[in-house]
Amino acid sequence: MAAMPELTTYEATVVTGLEWIAAEECVEKLATKKVTQSHGRVFIETDRPVQQVFDLKSVDNIYAVIYDNASEEVPKNAEELSQKLTSISTACDWSRGLKTWMDAYNWTKCDLKTILDTNADLKDMKPAFRVTANRTGDHKFNSHECAVILGAIINDTYHWKVSMKEFDIEVVLNVRDNHFYVCLALTRESLHRRNLVCFGPTSLRATIAYNMLRMANVQLGDIVCDPMCGSGAIPVECAHNWQTFGIAADNHPVAVERTQTNCRHNKSLTDVNQWDVTALPFRSDSIDVFITDLPFGKRLGSKHDNKTLYPALLQQLSRCIRVGTGRMVLLTQDKRNMIQSLQKPYVSKYWKVVRKTFVRIGGLDASIFVLKRNALPFTPI
After folding, report:
1. What pLDDT sits at residue 269?
2. Which of 27, 104, 204, 316 is buried most deeply by CB count within 10 Å?
3. Contact at 8 Å (CB) between 66 and 92?
4. d(C-alpha 253, C-alpha 275), whole Å
């Protein structure tokens, strides 16, 4: 009888509020139902190769979990903390975690046996490491103490070289109240840093763009339009992951140039234009999906401007989107003006709010509105 493949547990971080859509992608692409959502992260158990985990588009950073206990007895002093972290280090599944780490980084300088050998004479052959600690809750110790103590324990046991900057392995200790878990970082930088080569002051992260596109339920052959495209994160992500016809535009010539540069770099089949979003050049009932990151009124524009812009924009989108089937996904921090605009009779009669998701982006509380166009024909006011 063939041996069952080993399951590896991964932690993947995601923008707070979008955990549910990331979990959907994990189930779909990794053929697993063992996905758990937590605040700003999802935990995944899968036997799929780590490179398939890297193919996830909705998540930012990925870690291999090597220890997890949600009901630890919390240390009350430094001595108890040292004892606790010693027992945790002993219980860590270093072998499985390091196998995953070696696959992720194509590590070939030494084998797993050498890395885990406790012989100090082999230390020059071993990888360098550092420990990072994250702590939330009421404790008698801080994150720095955790990192120093666990780092010393690992160094004494396996004789890995300590390096805070030129490290090969990053061990991450997370303490949330009485929940202790340890991971190995599998990403050097966030996975949202992809595709774009030309950035604006408020460029949307690729992972957020992808999650918004999933929320729009984009289908094969759809015409997808970002009418306020900024740097083009949404049309570029759409072209990479869906077979659709993309249209992108902005009223600012510099934004149009950025989008053109990013589309050319990614060989994206996207028609890029410059226009006034309150007077779109489309015939009525012609666009399947509108999806955009609206001005927050913080770095660009103002909330006073949004009071006029949002209703005018929504009326144009109501006219141009396909009657009965069109979908719209809008991200904004200016929730007040968006809600008031959607409640205006000449807008609300065309739309059903399918979902409103609160997200936290760049320290700001924002919302993503998902709307579906009803069958009522558009009539100008």
Report:
1. 87
2. 204
3. yes
4. 9
| Residue 301, H or E segment | none
Q: How far is CA 224 from CA 64, 227, 253, 258, in A?
A: 36, 10, 21, 19
Residue 183 has a pLDDT of 98
Which of 250, 340, 254 shows the shortest CA–CA distance to 304? 340
Token pair listed for 57:
């588009």
CATH class of 8-185: alpha beta
Q: What mean pLDDT is reported for the chain? A: 94
Q: String of b and e for 310-344 (b: at least 16 CB within 10 Å)?
A: bbebbbbbbbbbbbeebbbbbbbbbeebbeebbee
Structure tokens that stand for 351 in this block: 């739309």
pLDDT higher than threshold 80 for residue 366: yes
* Cα torsion angle, 47, 49, 55, 58, sign: positive
Distances (CA, A) of 165 to 19, 128, 155: 31, 10, 16
Q: Is the pLDDT of residue 353 over 60?
A: yes
Fold of 206-373: Rossmann fold (3.40.50)
